[in-house]
Amino acid sequence: MSIARKWVFPILWIVVFAVIAAALAKIAFFPDRSEATDPAVPSAEIVDPQYVVGRGTISNDVTLTGTVAADAAVAVPATGTGEVREVYVGAGAWVNAGQEVLLLKGQVANPDGSVSNDWSTVTAPVSGVLSSFSALVGQQFAVGDPVGQIAPPGFHVSGSIPPEQLYRLIQRPSEAQVTITGGPAPFTCTNLTITTPLPGQGQGTGGTQGGGTGGGESGPTVTCTVPGDVTVFAGLAAELVIAGGIAEDVLIAPITAVEGASGTGNVYVVLPDGSTEQREVTLGLNDGVNVEITGGLEEGETILQFVPGAPAPTDGMPLPGQCIDTPDGTICG
Question: Compositional bias of type Gly residues: which residue ranges (predicted)?
Answer without folding.
Answer: 201-218
